[in-house]
Write the structure tokens for this entry.
Amino acid sequence: MSVSYQPVLWNRTKLIYDAVLIVAIVAYVLIFLKLGPMLSQAMAETNVPILRMRAFGSLALILLTVVLAIGPLARLDVRLMPLLYNRRHFGVMTAIVAATHAWYVLAWYFAFSPTPQLLALFTSNTSFGHVAGFPFELFGVLALTILAVLAATSHDFWLSFLSPPLWKAIHMSVYGAYAAVVLHVTLGALADGKNAALGVFLFISLGTLCALHLIAGRRERAADKAASAQDEKTHWIDIGDLTEIAENRAIIGAAPGGERIAVFRSKGKLSALSNLCSHQNGPVGEGKVVLGLVTCPWHGYQYRLEDGCSPPPFKERIRKYRVALSGTRVLVDPEPLPLGTRLEPLSIPEEQLAASAASSGG
Amino acid sequence: MQRRHRRAHAAIWTLLAIALPVALTVIFLSYPKLSKDAPAIRLDEPSKTATGQS
């Protein structure tokens, strides 16, 4: 959580995440450059500078594929949620690798250009009227520009400055970058028909990412459609049964407008909070109560059960809702309370506590 | 807000899942192909001619 601006807040998990990433990147480049020519005659006959640009270009495609797969994978299987924790560093690393590829391209193909290298890049191929031979370099420039902007605005400072919804909307342009990369590779590296491995990987990447995102989206849509039942008189919504809520965990319901609400159970009491973490809109309700604080599963942001505020000195807040029990049914007022409103968690009556304990025990 | 984000996300990936395979098909079909009566020895394949495999 943030009190004031700091360039990077390092911790052990982040260091391990980044170390694994860097080791994997170095290993890939070394294997490509050293082992590749031993295994492939075509690679052995290729100039080293061209091999270098291919190593970094293919690596950028692989990294972008993985970074785009993390989101839906974490939605489909919570065990993969730790991958989300430092995804932004993954994205920054992808931008650096892609920039290295571009630098090698400029240094090799435009080293002796009589015009400035960037000008030569934009003017050397003007076959705009043909599909085959279309200036694929432009798609690469577009993708790299998007990745560079996203890397530059990836820090929490920009997330806070722009607000999570706007920041997330801007960062969805990474999908445009991916589309540009696919076209860049297809029109460029695959055009001579000699790079079967890259072609196969491109198809696997595209198929896998489309399938993962569409399957995860379908599940979310189904959850949205299953909006919680609403009482006609009070308009409170029925989130579920008390027995469904494990200790220090939550169940999630949906208000008529679609906003999701999480009801936590901790120490014999119930608290209803917005399911959206104020940091990156992570699913707070999929987290758990740690030392009396609701903890978001994405980046560990924490909130008090009684008012939805982070403990001092942190300043993050999420909305709180009124909660009631009707028998063992958990009801929530879909109208949120003003941010920071203090509302003591609802005590579960003894008989319902015993009943739910017996039910969960059986 | 999150629901709008989810809808935008689903719309983008539906579009990509349709548009990109179509674009790839068009690009692959447009690659120049050798005519049936093209000579067997190709000057544009230096690796084969260099090793005498032509």
